[in-house]
Design brief:
The chain is an alpha/beta fold. Helix content is 40%, strand content 14%. A 5-stranded parallel sheet has the order 2-1-3-4-5.
């Protein structure tokens, strides 16, 4: 078994949510590298090593935390793209969104999301959910071998 870097890709456009997620990881003892991108276009650029990410790391993230309501390319389009690409489809994608709309939920599962989590409004619940997500996807879950990109 090869050692896989436990990098997390966070696709989130809200600076407040980014700060809260990073703080929650830190307070929960997760020391994983978290790469933050602010829109769907940046997420795809990161994964395909384009533009400013051209010299990016070879190891793919162990999980992608994906917001749905993103500028440029929305989260549903990013998810559809990831799950249709043979090189990227095995990377677990957790939709982490404020949308509790049933059409979004159904569409995400049709596109093969690995999990759909609605961001709690309560600060303490939000922190707890984020810490549990981080722990599960970086420590507990056994990911499939993902080829170097």
């Amino acid at each position: 078994m090869t050692t896989q870097v436990k990098r997390i890709l966070l696709v989130e456009d809200s600076p407040n949510d980014v700060e809260l997620i990073l703080t929650s990881f830190s307070e929960g003892g997760l020391t994983n590298e978290v790469v933050v991108v602010r829109d769907g276009e940046e997420a795809l650029d990161y994964l395909y090593k384009r533009g400013v990410f051209e010299l990016g790391k070879d190891e793919p993230p162990v999980v992608i935390l994906l917001d749905l309501k993103l500028p440029k390319i929305d989260g549903l389009e990013v998810l559809a793209h990831l799950k249709s690409d043979p090189m990227l489809r095995q990377i677990p994608v957790v939709v982490l969104t404020s949308s509790c709309e049933e059409p979004d939920l159904l569409r995400c599962y049709e596109l093969s999301t690995n999990a759909y989590v609605v961001k709690p409004i309560n600060f303490q619940e939000f922190r707890q959910v984020v810490q549990q997500l981080g722990l599960f996807w970086t420590v507990i879950n056994q990911p499939p071998p993902i080829p170097v990109l």
